[in-house]
Amino acid sequence: MHNLKKYFSFLLVLLLLSNVTAVSAAEPINEIRDLIKEYYIEDVPASVLAKPTAKEITKHLDPYSVYMTAEEFAQFSNGIEQQLVGVGIVLDEDEKGIKIMSVIKGGPADRGGMKAGDIIVSVNGVSLIGQPVQKAVSLISGKANTSVTLHYISVDTNETVTKKLTRELIKLPNVEYQMLGGEIGYIRLNSFSKDATKEITNAIGKLNGAKGWIFDLRNNGGGYVSTAQEVAGLFPNVNKAFQIRDKTKQPEIYAAIPQKVKFTSPTHILINEYSASASEMIAVSVKEQKGATLYGQTSFGKGSMQSLFPLSDNSMLKLTTARFYSPKGVPVHETGVTPNIDTAVGEEIITSHRDQLIAKHATYQKLPALNGVPVTKTFNVEMNMEMDWSKLSPQDVQLIQLGGNEVPVEVKAEDHSKMTIKPKANLQSKGKYMLIIHPKWTSKNANRMQKGIYLEVTVQ
């Protein structure tokens, strides 16, 4: 592929970032022109290549092709590796300005009420309309404990909001994990960083015993192509990572890199409109090879690959050199990846967890749902025969918050056929739960329950 493999290739991703000030210097303009002519995904007119500076040339390319000084590239790399000084937001270009792809929980922007989907139009009075992400980074970055004023269009109200935030050191866990109720392993990946596969593998090991998996790529803006190849190798039945086509339009299929530890079936992947780049690589390939089921909404639609070209003055040219597709050629660029199961925004993990639990108890009988129960709800269960409650145990019952943990309960016999299930703490308002009763009880005539039962519960 035009010898692109000798360069360090990866997908455009996120940022916000470290305390670095760009330093101007003479640019290796002829090197830049030659690289664009040879590797850029489209042919570039001579009139554009004749522009006097790198930034003037790249302004006429796609939004993801940019020239970076050595200092700006350090910022970019820190963003991928989740090492940040800033306000805690992940960014990408938008025709109206710079779109927030995700907001880091607990960071200055989060505390200030900013949300994914907000579009920053200016920083400290400097317009970002039509500007690349790197411009936003240079304006928003600075020393810790200094302030920056952002003007943005709210995704909720469509009104322009002004927010003054204080920059701070933000330590980001790239991989977050927990065992959800019902032994469903949940792993969230925030960036396809160099060590992401190692961290995911570690998380899988920590969640030993999981009976199903939820892999969360919501709001993940991408990262390294090589990491995407490795992550593809974590899924059962996935042998191919993606297809890439450079300016020659000739397809080249890249294999998934097999991993010693893998997710086990059933596995779900969560995506949303802010899942981009490497996240979409994984989603489209795993979906095609049936290595997992996708839940959520159609992804962002950034199916282009950038390569990094080191220049003689230690600066860097980041250039769109290829488009990526599923192994069979399904396009991603400007179309995104559609999920197998479309869910409401914010309901992705709840719906996935629910379906995992139902699949795990496929032989159980579903009872009518209980809607609008109080947070202090006590559940009454009445059998149609006299029961032997002598071996009644809380382990016979599971009350699981969907998207969360199992809720401890007290189980008590009230009479010969009736028993109660009482949560040891109040239920969460607006929360969704599943009550599962396992077939462990017997009647006084030693007749055993034929099958388990479950029902869904929503709280007022």
Secondary-structure map:
Elements: E1 8-10, H1 29-39, H2 46-49, H3 54-58, E2 66-68, H4 70-80, E3 83-86, E4 89-94, E5 97-103, H5 108-111, E6 119-123, E7 126-127, H6 133-140, E8 147-153, E9 160-166, E10 168-171, E11 175-180, E12 184-189, H7 196-206, E13 212-216, H8 225-232, E14 240-245, E15 251-255, E16 267-271, H9 278-288, E17 293-296, E18 304-310, E19 316-325, E20 341-342, H10 348-360, E21 365-366, E22 370-373, E23 379-382, E24 387-388, E25 397-401, E26 406-407, E27 409-413, E28 418-423, E29 432-437, E30 442-443, E31 453-459
Parallel strand pairs: 12-13, 13-16, 16-17, 17-20, 21-31, 22-31
Antiparallel strand pairs: 1-18, 2-19, 3-10, 4-5, 5-6, 6-7, 6-8, 8-9, 11-12, 14-15, 14-19, 18-19, 23-28, 24-30, 25-26, 25-29, 27-28, 29-31
